[in-house]
Specification:
P-loop_NTPase, 12 helices, single chain, alpha/beta, about 230 residues, Sulfotransferase family protein, Sulfotransfer_4, about 55% helix, globular
């Protein structure tokens, strides 16, 4: 299925809210990192896309009309080539607030230290669910923390510079007519105007707040249950 809307904002920029909003607006299922953790067979397609610039897009996005968050957002150049008519949405957030949120959520739960990795390995020995889950964590580690952020995410100045530089590259790459710079705090109006759809009557969905996100991630890590964003 051809993607109609592509989110090019990173984790903790309101991507879960944008996912829900796009689904409410009638753009079908929206692909998000949540899906990868629960369907780790997709990891192979993402690795191929990162390494070669292409993959089996039809298989990867079967049943989806949009994508947001990691692992998709860093492949904006490949997506622009594959889906030249798509609309792109750059979800943005105050850099300082973004860094503090990302550091204490997605970064902190990704196994970083030897002890954390050893703990995950012990769980993997006895559980297929944890072996599958590790594939998704390795994808995040390789292409986000060690790739984009070069293993230096704890260096705040470096991370902020890379975050802002990535957004600048996206703005330079995507044609202005196809790109919306969007802060979820702005609600429905700019999003609906950009997508050419009516503004819904219900409130804009503000999802995946820090407390809820950490609870769901910790639950997944402790029990191996599916990740469900709230």
């Amino acid at each position: 299925m051809s993607l109609k809307v592509i989110g090019v904002g990173g984790p903790r920029t309101g991507t879960a809210s944008l996912k829900m909003a796009l689904e409410q607006l009638g753009f079908g299922k929206c692909y998000h990192m949540e899906w990868v953790f629960n369907h780790t067979e997709d990891v192979a397609y993402w690795k191929e896309l990162y390494e070669t610039g292409t993959t089996d897009f039809e298989r990867l996005f079967d049943g989806f009309q949009s994508t947001v968050d990691f692992p998709g957002y860093l492949n904006y150049q490949a997506f622009l080539k594959q889906y030249p008519e798509a609309k792109f949405i750059l979800s943005e957030r105050d850099p300082e607030a973004w860094y503090e949120s990302a550091l204490n959520t997605v970064f902190s739960v990704t196994p970083q230290t030897f002890g954390q990795k050893l703990g995950m390995m012990k769980k993997m020995l006895f559980s297929k669910k944890f072996r599958d889950m590790s594939k998704a964590f390795l994808l995040v580690e390789k292409y986000l923390w060690k790739g984009l952020y070069e293993g230096r995410f704890k260096d705040k100045a470096f991370a902020l510079n890379r975050y802002q530089g990535t957004n600048e590259d996206i703005i330079k790459t995507i044609p202005a007519s196809q790109l919306l710079r969007f802060n979820p705090a702005d609600g429905w109006e700019p999003l609906c105007e950009f997508l050419g759809v009516a503004v819904p009557n219900e409130p804009f969905p503000y999802k995946n707040k820090r407390k809820d996100f950490k609870e769901q991630l910790n639950k997944m890590l402790n029990t191996g249950e599916a990740l469900v964003l709230k």
